[in-house]
Amino acid sequence: MSVGAVVVGGGQSGLAAAGALARRGVRPVLIEAHVDPTGSWSRYYESLRLFTPAGLNALPGRPFPADDAYFPSRDEMAGYLRDYAATLDCEVRTRTRVEAVTRHGSRFVVRTDRGDELGAGMVVAATGQFDNPHRPDIPGLRGYTGPVLHAADYREPHGYAGRRIVVVGSGNSAVQIASELAEHARVSIASRAPIRYATEDPVPGDSRFWTVLSLAGRVPAGRWFGAATVPVIDTMGYRARIDAGRPDRRDLPVRAEGRALYWPDGSVEAVDLVLLATGYRPALDYLAPLGLRYRHRRPGVPAHRAGVSLDHPGLGFVGLDNQRTFLSATLLGVGRDATYVAARLT
């Protein structure tokens, strides 16, 4: 089967890419591995609220249906993406996983787990990162034999009541998950460095901070940003809770034996669960046959210029961290980036 373009991934990045291609007269086929075109949103932890207000969380042509200052929930965002997908002029194939993308002459061949092969002049890789959780090697945890979960596996706190839990990480997800768990369990946030906050005080949804953030996110300076943790945007009073020790924050353990963690201050305690809120890496294994070059300072990130492959004409990316701006992996950023990439592929 021959098509004009294939978009791999049906979350916010893929939907933005499909919409951008359609606006330029290319009707793409969008392929999503899961049950509906919501990407990772329906699989995040249940209490998740966006760290940015609704006014900054919309794809081109469809405002989020809420007050601009409102912080949407996980399920509300998933619903928004389903509605957005229904408006697109493209073919959407769900429950279909792309296994490999190869190149034959000037065209790509996209092979799926259903046995389909689609020939296309353009491919946009928009699979995001949720399916590739980053589990770093932490020396102080090597001897720990208790259960270790990643934030990708966490759903809700009630099954952890009364337990001793260490959340590893210092970003928005670590802070939000640890604060939620601290209402039911004894929780510490452990990280290499202190938590960095974007502001001194909690940021309400109608703050000018969001206008400044949006404007700064238009500057195409993404390549100058490294892989450092994004500062925590405190929208729910997380800093006050952590300062009060609910949860507390401490340096990483120096070693572990069985379920015992040894802390830098010399104390030792048994821990029931370690939860890694250590981020994700691009999930792009299906591009391996193309022999892409990768950036040595950004693990798993292919060589590209603002989302356009430096190795294969017709190949683009949407949703990579700092792909074009420091907001490139956000809902606001993917819309802008998809428009840019589509214009350069068509």
From TrEMBL:
SUPFAM superfamilies: FAD/NAD(P)-binding domain, NAD(P)-binding Rossmann-fold domains. One of its GO terms (molecular function) is flavin adenine dinucleotide binding. This is Putative flavoprotein involved in K+ transport. Pfam families: Pyr_redox_3 (PF13738). It comes from the Bacteria. Keywords: Oxidoreductase. PANTHER family: FLAVIN-BINDING MONOOXYGENASE-LIKE PROTEIN (AFU_ORTHOLOGUE AFUA_4G09220), FLAVIN-CONTAINING MONOOXYGENASE.
